[in-house]
Design goal:
36% of the residues lie in helices and 25% in strands. The protein has 239 residues and is α/β, with parallel strands linked by helices. It has 2 domains: 150 residues, Rossmann fold, CATH 3.40.50.300; 62 residues. The strands form 2 sheets. It has a 6-stranded mixed sheet, sandwiched between helices. Helix 8 packs across helix 9. It is globular. The model has no long low-confidence stretch (mean pLDDT 91).
Length: 239
Amino acid sequence: MLSVENVTLQYRHGKGVKEVSFTINRGECLGLVGANGAGKSTLLQIIATVLKASSGELSLDGESYLTKLDLIRKKIGYVPQDLALFSSLTVYEELAFWHQLSTISLPKARIDYVASIVGLSDMLNMKVEHLSGGMKRKLNLAVALLHEPELLILDEPTVAIDIQSKLEIISFLKEWSKDKMVIITSHDMEEIEMLCSHLLLLSKGEVQFYGMMEEVSEQVGEGEKRMTMSEKVMRLHSM
């Protein structure tokens, strides 16, 4: 279980996150939504250990971020919005590079396995620079899966890609999250609705709504049956 309690990080210009609290259990996928600048990426980076909160407590499987950071990092897979790939390498070389950097002892067969589950087996010898946008997103995901993380954190993993690649990534994540923990940000509410069991809405760094997807409709109330998920979230944002 991931536990986030009263987490706060304030930047000099005032933006950040303030007293954010929620939990995620295995088999759950949390959709993190909000307007640009709401604090989504900041929160993801805190959970991924890229940034350090100024106050609050985080723990993963009962281990505190304050005392067991190295152990926790081994359990986290982080997929940033910006592609972190080397264009001059082949797909196999890219995976092999990150495989070697892993602090966990991994069999070489893990590279082939990860490539297969994201649909890149036939492209292992192709240069990264020649991949389509969708294939690069899949490779970015594959890198994060190499060490078989318990918690997968994804910042806009399907942005600016073709619909086929998007559906394939969503399908994979839906299956993978059955016994893992997933946090995903997206501006595509249909994607969030298809994939997530829970929703957290941030507004100006603070939690405006947190609950199960079914509770979104209950919170919105009158007229919710005629609304799309985007309209429901907009209603929540204005409440």
